[in-house]
TrEMBL record:
Name used for this protein in its record: Pyrrolo-quinoline quinone repeat domain-containing protein
Native organism taxonomy: Eukaryota, Metazoa, Chordata, Craniata, Vertebrata
Biological process according to GO: amino acid activation for nonribosomal peptide biosynthetic process
Species assigned in the record: Micrurus lemniscatus lemniscatus
Domain Pyrrolo-quinoline quinone repeat: 2-166
Pfam families, sorted: Beta-prop_ACSF4
Signal peptide: none
Domain of life: Eukaryota
InterPro entries associated with the record: Beta-ala_Activ/Resist, PQQ_rpt_dom, Quinoprotein_ADH-like_sf, WD40/YVTN_repeat-like_dom_sf
Amino acid sequence: MGKTVWKTVCGKPIFSSPHCDQDYVYVGCVDGNLYCFSHFGEKVWAFSSNGPIFSSPCVSPFSRDVFFGSHDCFIYCCNREGNVLWKFETTSRVYATPFVFCSPKLGSKAFLVATSTDGRLWILNAKTGLAEDRGELPGEVFSSPVAWGSTIVVGCRNNYLYCLDLCLS
């Protein structure tokens, strides 16, 4: 490994995995902020939630909006300037990373799948933040869900991996 190119202090630990796109580096922090840095380490903006952020940011390849969850029981969508576009209240803390997807079987809309620690699974309209569907697993969920076609795959604390068919109207 070579020399450190840059580093910056965020105030509290970082459990979130950073996400890099062509312009920025995004990362959540235990201090409750989602930070946006340039690729030179300069802070561009910080968005403050009301709880620690363990969730890693998910950047939409369709809109370039940034999605993440917080311990304040909300899933957030921010634009690239750090302004909140919408937030969705879940029933428990959000540790896992949301996943944005489109499926030809489900039309042309972009969806966001997210989980909360009480075992709930949420399918949101990625543009509006409105719930399109929801489900419940028989245990706590810390696993980050992924979408494949018209299915969702997610792990549960009951030791099972689930593949769930989406039946959105």
